[in-house]
Amino acid sequence: DQKEQVTPRILAGGQHVVQLDGEGTYQCSLTGLIFEVTGAIKITYCLLSWSKYASLVKKPWIVGGPLFDVCCDGAAALTSIQFPHSLCLSG
């Protein structure tokens, strides 16, 4: 399975933006997110803090892994997102 590496543009507030120009499978070089798309699409995403949402997670579930907010223009072209199970924030 071939994934094209893409490096997002970083906006204020820690938002990431990628403009994908055509069909394929793309992997963000910074977060590990994998996007499968059928056509051109602009995807904006950011890492959120679990501190605001942890109370929504009820037992037996536990908080585990990064939490992302993902938005896109042309959602019909986005067929799947694969989220990483972990994310190293220490560089």
Automatic annotation (TrEMBL):
GO cellular component term of the entry, any: cytosol
Keyword Protein transport: no
Subcellular location per the Swiss-Prot or TrEMBL entry: Cytoplasm, Cytosol
Gene Ontology terms: biological process: innate immune response
InterPro entries per record: FIIND_dom, NLRP_Inflammasome
Record's keyword terms, sorted: Cytoplasm, Immunity, Innate immunity
Main location group: cytoplasm
Domain FIIND, residue spans: 1-91
Signal peptide segment: none
Repeat recorded as keyword: no
Pfam families, per database record: FIIND (PF13553)
PANTHER family with a match to the protein in the record: APOPTOSIS-ASSOCIATED SPECK-LIKE PROTEIN CONTAINING A CARD, NACHT, LRR AND PYD DOMAINS-CONTAINING PROTEIN 1
Protein name per its UniProtKB record: CARD8 protein
Organism per entry: Rhinopomastus cyanomelas (Common scimitarbill)
